[in-house]
Amino acid sequence: MSVLTRDEAQTRAKLLDVHHYGIELDLTRGDDTFDSRTVIRFTVRTDADTFVELKPAELRSVTLDGRPLDPETLDENRLPLGGLTAGEHELRVDAAMRYSRTGEGMHRFTDPTDGETYLYTQLFMEDVQRVFAAFDQPDLKAVFDLSVTAPDGWTVLANGVTEHLGEGRWKAAPTPLISTYLVAVAAGPWHSVRTEHRGLPFGIHCRRSLAPHMDADADEILDITRACFDRYHEKFEEPYPFDSYDQAFVPEFNAGAMENPGLVTFRDEFIYRSAVTDTERQTRAMVIAHEMAHMWFGDLVTLRWWDDIWLNESFAEYMGYQTLTEATRFTDTWVDFGVARKSWGYDADQRPSTHPVAPDPEAVPDTASAMLNFDGISYAKGASALRQLVAWLGEKDFLAGINTHFARHKFANATLADFIDSLAGATERDVHAWADAWLRTTGVDTLTPTTEAGTDGSHTLTVRRDGSRPHRINVGVYDQDLTDSSRLTLRERLDLDVPQAEPEAIGKRPALLLLNDGDLSYAKVRFDPESFETVRTALSGLPDPLTRAVVWNALRDAVRDGELPAMAYVDAARAHLPHETDLALVQGVLSFATAHVADRFLTAEDRPAALATLTDLCRDLIRRTEDGSHPGLRLTAVRHFIDVAAHPDTISAWFSEGTVPGGPELDPELRWRILGRLAVLGAVDDAVIDAELVQDPSATGQEGAARCRAALPDPAAKRAAWESMFTTDDLSNYLFTATAQGFWQPEQADLVREYVERYWSDAVALAARRGPAIAEAAGRWAFPVHAISASTLTLGETCLRDADPTPALRRKLTDQLDDLARALRVRQP
Length: 829
Hints:
Keywords: Aminopeptidase, Hydrolase, Metal-binding, Metalloprotease, Protease, Zinc. The protein is an alpha+beta fold. It starts with 5 loop residues before the first helix and ends with a helix.
């Protein structure tokens, strides 16, 4: 399909003023297609030719101002509109459109639990063309007037309040001016909980089979929603701009959520069927806050072209964490950001595919290239940059600039230049220079402390910066506790601008100097030798979890950069996690120690020792929580004990008995988790998997079974899994991912060796057939991540050079190969 270029979009935006879409969707036409009839009213400013986009299964008819156009003129996804004269026009399009099973366009899902079917749209970037004809670019905003015919017993949700007119016909209130990619429909026999807040209808919705689980959490979800809504109205002068606020938890959703105005869609894993930790509840709350921030930044004011997508995501990411901290019981959200999200940005920023937070427009010439920038830089690094901006600018001036921006550009489009101008008007600081240094550059700065003793025994601190950005940081000065040598006490936090004008006096030599204490900047930090020795022995004695997060991130970075032996990270976890109380830190450290250190950075010969150490650590955490005082910590320890089990005996006994001794009882998530690990170890067979699927036939159960079958150490099982992923094209996006997650296992390197070579050509062909969502999954989940060898690197580089992978797959392969090369470097003595 043709992609839209920035130049084409600019030309069309100068030519057209799009006023109104009338859209009629008929969802009763069968399992494969639905009917889509669109009427577009628009003005042409001068005589010219242009085009409208759509991707139909069948284009039945097109009329322009009552004059029939030939449907055969459709060229891929473009229908030419020639000989347009200046003035008003009306375009009518009648088409049949295909349902999707990849989460793009109109996704169709049948719940295996009860046979009920659900539909929802995901129209981001250019997938609106899979649902209705459109002038598809973000700066051609219009009013959308939607009607839907749905099966009896269904409810239809949309951007505006919907009304059931009878006989399956639904009508949505017209939207204000919004972009094409923000139109949303969700239809099915939803289970709903509705309420009102500040005179607006609020609702949450999920599949009927998940109703008991959503009902159990409905108060929490709605309380978070109301608290964030109220807090945003304290921050923003513009009121919420839409007529309702629905949140639909939908199946097989590719992203975490999507900020459709008035109808936010979330992946329905956020409706918890099994026990979760409070950190996971915090993550759900953060996503709620993140998507609500988009109602202003992204929906009310929208980017003009996709080079500014970072503005949407960075702002929502920053606001999501900050507002949750201010308005809810989740007051340590920046710890989770530091340990779970920020590393995503650091990793992305050190790969060859890195890009500035705000790339030059020329670097995003079309929609295909724009799609590649939904990464750790646009989210985590961008949010970190905004957090640094607030620290430098002050929150009062930051919010004043934001409110100016909303007032100037509401229901319209804006650019980075507009955003910076709005901020600059609220302060005397040089925001333009800050933006050039922070938003137009790539890479991660590294900050390293050095101290010098004076003749009187006092010391000074100098911070060496490897990089180019200015930083306003806190420096934590910590002393050993006089009564407990395993604990550290904060002497003071210094406010420091880097680069420094002169060395900073710090008095007597402290036990620990921690740069970027409080995590207000975006940089890798190193330790001086004395501070590193303190970290090694007393990391868990630091009083604040955010401080500990900065230290753990520094150790993580040192391992990835080859400056700290990988096993030293595992040893640090073994020494300090038994004393850790913050769940986000425990989860983040265990995840890195397992998935990166044990499974990638250590050789096959060294891996068993790491797994044994992590097993001992998890066993200690389980023992520590036997009194029931820390259920989240216990659940985290149980999960990771399962994941690192090198022998089946203990977890097999848990599975058979249906419980961990002393709790928790095994819910579906834990049962599938144990079964997956037993499958890897060869301790179960298809019969056990089939029996478990009978007990849990849900969509999650289907994914668990697919993951387990692919993990079996059996040539026939591997062959069947490979064929299902790369040959038949029958798997949905979620079942593809589950199968891929099970396929590659470090313990099975010899068994799957032949597939390492097959992967490259099969993945290229798959991506070309099935599109960006499956291409991303193939590059992320089906990549042979455990085949750490020079030969794998050579195969990948040859693929990139000669096989012409699609842009989405090329980006994932580029990143994976860089990670593979890093793992090879870390393994070198």
